[in-house]
Amino acid sequence: MSTSDGRTGPDWRATLRARGLRLTPQRELVLDAVRTLGHATPDQVLAQVQRTATGVNASTVYRTLDLLEKLDLVRHTHLGHGAPTYHFGGSADHFHTVCRDCGTVTEVPTAIARTFAEQLITDQAFQTDMGHLTVFGRCSNCAAHPS
Which domains are present in the chain? Predict the structure, then answer.
């Protein structure tokens, strides 16, 4: 879904057109900001967008993130307390690990937690939404250098 210059490509435009939605510069700026930032809160997306378009306000960013999520172009997760964090929806299915010491966020393929998810189904009749799963702990770098 990206062009050779790393910007969002024609696929997102086709998705919008197929839904009868307009291709606005604000939508492209928000999607580009999410892709550039990797994992970002709405306020971080707003700050990134305002580097290029100072007239874009927070409500536009929130509405755009909501629309882009409904179109599966971005996804949100909760990486701690506070605002959700958005990331590009075109990436492979994954869950997140967050280091409590340094804050590093890592995307982990869902296959790693497959046994865990299957056990939850077997024991609890509970189906896991892996896209919202976040595991907190200490990364290998912080674990190797105790404070």
Answer: 10-88 (1.10.10.10), 94-144 (3.30.1490.190)
